[in-house]
Amino acid sequence: FRGQKIKNFIFVSVGHIDAPHLKEHSDIELLRNQIEQDLSRYVELAQCMGYYSEYRYILGTDRVNELETLCTQIATDFIEPVFFCGKLIFTEENTFTGLLHNQTPMEIQRRLMFAGLNTIVVPVRVI
Length: 127
Hints:
- The chain has 127 residues and is α/β, with parallel strands linked by helices.
- It is 44% helix and 28% strand.
- The strands form two sheets. A two-stranded parallel ribbon has the order 1-2. A two-stranded parallel sheet has the order 3-4.
- The protein starts with 7 loop residues before the first strand and ends with a strand.
């Protein structure tokens, strides 16, 4: 990875299907539309900067499992992919921030690295 230029951007998201809140088919379609709209913005930005970009998403009940599935599928379509995850970093951590903001990026990194896929967790500072 060192010294290589990133040429393609694939933006990935998981639509979390929460049974109590998404009861009807129309709720799932609203979720799908929102995800597509959000990801389209990132794709458009990358394309304006001259990069190839696309998005992929999946709907499911377990974010980590769904992300692992989606990333391994992407790895079959692209040579030597590098996956980036954002982890929220708070200036003042407490018990609640630890409980509310779990270790999803670290778990994704662990799973993908065991699958032989390069994964980088990028800190995202929250003030």
